[in-house]
Amino acid sequence: MPYLLKRVINSVILLLITVSFVFFACRMIGDPALNMLGPGANDIALENLRRAAGLNDPLWLQWVRYMGGLLQGDFGVSYRYGFSVIPEADLKDIGVPVVDLVAERLPATFLLAGVAMAIAVPLGLGMGVIAAAYPRHLADRLVTVLSLAGVSIVQFWLGLMLIVLFAVQLGWLPTGGYGEPAHVILPALTLAARPIGRIAQVVRSAMLDELAKPYVVTARAKGVAEWRVILLHALRNAAIPIITMIGDELSALLTGAILVEKIFAWPGIGLLIIDSLSRSDLPIIQVSIAVVATLVIIVNLLVDFAYRIIDPQIQLGQKA
Amino acid sequence: MADVSNPAIEDAIDPKDERENLRDYLYALRRDKITASAVLFLLALLAFTIGAEFLAPHKPTGLNLADRMLPPFSTGKKGLFYLLGTDELGRDLFTRLIYGARVSVSVGLLGATFSCVFGVIAGLTAGYYGGLYEDLVMRFVDGMLSLPSLLVALFVLFILGGGFANLILVFAVLHWMVFARMSRGLALAARSKTYVVAAKAMGASGRRIVFRHILPNVVAPILVLYTLEIAILILSEASLSFLGFGVQPPDPSWGLMIADGREHIRSAWWLVAFPGLAIFLTALCLNLVASWVRAVTDPAQRWRWFAIGSGGRE
After folding, report:
1. What is residue B267's three-state secondary structure?
2. Does the ipTM surpass 0.90?
3. What is the DSSP letter of B86?
4. By a Cβ cutoff of 8 Å, what residues of chain A touch chain B?
5. Which of A208, A229, A245 shows the shortest CA–CA distance to A128?
6. What is the pLDDT of residues A150-166, one digit of tens each?
7. Which of A192, A314, B48, B138 reaches 20 to 30 Å from B129, CA-CA?
8. pTM > 0.90
9. CATH topology of domain B21-57+64-306
10. Domain residue spans of chain A
């Protein structure tokens, strides 16, 4: 598979560029040692860190060391995680390996994204198929309005409104937190609104295109039941744009999770990113951004692979 | 066979001048109540944005501690009326929304305009000239597009610092690629069309062909994308400002107002509800207008919009 190999190599290069960009940008804002230890750190601690982490070396050497570390699974150490003021202790005692922090947060984000997609994909598919099966009917109009609303809404605002309604006024669900099944409902619904709208729109227009094609006329003329024509003939042929949109929405969801996790105090990687950005905790920022970028790139690659499985006729690499 | 009432065909036989075209569009707009309301909403928003000083019922910084946290439709102690209620300092929410619109709408408009101009120039020239230049531009575009843009925006604003100008800069840098990708496709399709070949045969320069011949013919799809992009940027601005990395206080913006109101969400829901509603309605109207523009400029669809009594030409 030379094309897919090329795509993988391109993705790896893109990732290396991204990680390097984040690394150099993080070194541009002020004293990295001060950022890593936080304001109020004393001179001795700063000097110890500079010596231990090699912050006095030339920048290119630091970069080589950092990239080498990443390749060997050394993601760096955060000194500010869990502290607001640097305690008077040996740096070795307060450092937390970033890899542990990220690994601890990922399951929560995956759970949230998974539940949101499990809501969005069937609903979006169903709405789109119904709208295409009954064009210009009330159902079609309703789906059009709902999907436009889903695309136009501000995600985090929807989350806040859901909190006001279901948590504050009605008291049915918790305002935030993690651990019980009830906790996932509101954040997942918040995240699902946009993909429902986008998927329904794409399904509707792809299905309308397919249903106008001659093979559909043939199938109907043969007396194939209408539901079979729609679900087995047309939907299958409309799969490519739908899969693309689902992939797009999954990667949008991974970044959209940043805001939703913040609103619902959901301990995922998005909340970790926001918290470490507001504390200028460079080691965590560098790794968590790289991790989310990697996830997004992997989703894009999987969509490409999916094309080939769905439609063996597709000539990857030849742009339409 | 020939459908004489089809304006797309009539246009080809007897091209109309610009004024007649505009009349047709206005007529089609009058017949589509939903899109017409969307256009009216956006025009009103623009009017409020420009004339905030004259149209706002109160002063944006008018502290009035006696009238704190009043719900919508209430009258204050001195008989002042507050349409959408007041905030924790007694400031009128409706007035603040109008001033917030100024920031949010201009971030959306300016960001979309810069990325549109830059993206269209890069895309059209890449599609028309091709070769190594096209390869480099499109590879860069593909790479940038596969990164999560909100996350990159967040990170770059963390490095540069927030604020109005930086926000627009970040949007321009992170959003021109969609325009580039689309206009490259359009230029690629136009390259072999008769009018381009004719212009080339008459000795027109590459720059002239791209900007005087191809560009006017591909304005419609670019306009659709531009409208959608304004909506996307207004939503992104709200998200980034809410997180504290976008517009900085005391500049009012809809996203910041939601962030401020969040502290009082249990007691004063309107402080969060109305700014979000303003963003929602603006984005919804922009989306409606975009899909209308797409429909009326599509030769395969537009006859539906002009069909009945279009300028008495039946």
Report:
1. coil
2. no
3. B
4. 10-11, 14, 17-18, 22, 25-26, 28-29, 148-149, 151-158, 160-161, 163-164, 168, 251-252, 254-256, 258-259, 262, 273-274, 277-278, 285, 289, 292-293, 296-297, 300
5. A208
6. 888 888 899 888 888 88
7. A314
8. no
9. MetI-like fold (1.10.3720)
10. 1-97+280-320, 107-267
